[in-house]
């Protein structure tokens, strides 16, 4: 998304918006992010400057057409002299989606009930409804609604977004008769979304991830390997234009192997990325993760040390030190592993985000206790 925002021609919106980008890890931003329920990235809000209420909201990556439609919708919500009841219900759903997804689902359902068949925002409301059902953990209703709503949709970005949400709902639950029936209908739509040029990279990755998760959950390792190989082949065919894109590709590679696969398969690509980004600790961190998964512990420690030398923030430093400690423990150097954990704890206590800070501190304290008792970390 950053590359899109950096290069998109949005000149026609000059004077309509004040653009604000908030870093998730900066403590001063927490009050805003908490107020609007921004607990994942990327997430986009258009706010009414008069009352700071949400005029439009969109989670996840967008294509350029989606971005312009989103901006047009937000501007319409503020500048339009008259909105229909369906428009107002859609706006209310957007305002609730991040904080109260169950309430948002009801608002989107109301919008669809009130809207005429020709309402231009119908497919958007349908996609938003499926997203709200996913966020509200209403897995069966989400997957079945995704199938019902996506099947007649135009084959564009909103179609892919709807399918992705439905697939995540199937991947989030154990196999059951209802989920098997939903999968038989939804998987062909997911495969169709993969065939569309309009399906953005983030959604393609999500579809492959869910197909792999669902296959593993059903003990179909041949299918998991098939989807994993197809996904990696797609990623390897992309020539990244920036460090941001390179990092995104590496994250997808790591997620692929963490679901099912051989970490050695992606080590050459991760080594190349680390060399291409000499000032970016993330490249070293991803490489360290997979060297550890491949049980190359000396290489893991070396990658962590390179990452630590690249000035990561508190979160990155804590993460690298935890990976290093695990590798040291596997090598049998318990005293060194404990020192790395103590440094990781010190870094974790400085993480700005309270949830991430508490989670890391708890995890490290548990590992420190295990290292003292001689148990596995």
Low-confidence segments, ≥5 residues, pLDDT <50? none
Largest sheet report: 2 strands, antiparallel
Task: Report the sheet-strand fraction.
Answer: under 5%
User: Assembly type of the shown chains?
Assistant: single chain
Shape: globular
Helix content: 55-70%
Count of alpha and pi helical runs: 18
| Radius of gyration over all CA atoms, rounded | 22 Å
Annotation, overall tally of beta strands = 2
Instruction: Name the helix and strand elements from N-terminus to C-terminus, one letter apiece.
Output: HHEEHHHHHHHHHHHHHHHH
As laid out across the biggest beta sheet, the strand order is 1-2
What is the CA-CA span between the terminal residues? 37 Å
Category from helices, strands and their pairing: mainly alpha
Q: What value does the average pLDDT take? A: 90
Short précis:
By secondary structure, the protein is mainly α. The chain has helices at residues 2-7, 30-36, 64-79, 85-97, 101-114, 122-135, 139-150, 157-171, 177-194, 201-217, 221-236, 243-259, 267-276, 281-293, 297-308, 314-330, 334-348, 354-373; strands at 43-47, 54-59.
């Amino acid at each position: 998304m950053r590359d899109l925002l950096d290069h998109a021609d949005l000149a026609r919106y000059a004077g309509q918006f004040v653009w604000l980008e908030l870093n998730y890890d900066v403590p001063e931003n927490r009050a805003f992010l908490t107020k609007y329920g921004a607990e994942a990235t990327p997430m986009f809000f258009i706010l009414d400057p008069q009352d700071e209420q949400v005029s439009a909201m969109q989670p996840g990556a967008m294509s350029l057409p989606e971005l312009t439609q989103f901006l047009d919708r937000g501007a319409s919500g503020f500048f339009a002299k008259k909105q229909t009841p369906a428009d107002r219900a859609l706006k209310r759903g957007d305002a609730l989606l991040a904080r109260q997804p169950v309430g948002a689902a009801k608002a989107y359902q109301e919008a669809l009930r009130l809207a005429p068949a020709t309402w231009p925002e119908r497919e958007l409301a349908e996609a938003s409804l499926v997203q709200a059902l996913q966020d509200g953990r209403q897995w069966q209703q989400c997957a079945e609604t995704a199938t019902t709503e996506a099947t007649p949709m135009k084959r564009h970005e909103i179609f892919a977004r709807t399918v992705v949400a439905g697939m995540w709902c199937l991947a989030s639950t154990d196999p059951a008769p209802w989920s098997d029936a939903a999968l038989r209908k939804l998987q062909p739509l997911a495969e169709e979304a993969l065939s569309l040029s309009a399906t953005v990279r983030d959604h393609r990755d999500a579809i492959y991830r869910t197909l792999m998760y669902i296959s593993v959950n059903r003990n179909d390792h041949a299918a998991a390997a098939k989807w994993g190989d197809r996904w990696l082949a797609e990623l390897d065919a992309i020539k990244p234009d920036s460090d941001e894109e390179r990092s995104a590709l590496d994250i997808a590679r790591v997620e692929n192997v963490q679901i099912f696969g051989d970490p050695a398969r992606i080590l050459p690509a991760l080594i190349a990325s680390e060399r291409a980004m000499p000032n970016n600790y993330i490249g070293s961190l991803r490489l360290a993760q997979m060297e550890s998964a491949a049980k190359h512990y000396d290489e893991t420690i070396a990658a962590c040390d390179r990452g630590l030398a690249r000035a990561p923030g508190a979160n990155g430093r804590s993460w690298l030190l935890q990976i290093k400690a695990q590798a040291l423990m596997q090598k049998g150097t318990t005293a060194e592993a404990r020192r790395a954990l103590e440094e990781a704890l010190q870094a974790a206590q400085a993480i700005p985000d309270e949830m991430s800070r508490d989670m890391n501190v708890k995890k490290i304290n548990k590992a420190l206790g295990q290292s003292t008792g001689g148990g596995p970390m």
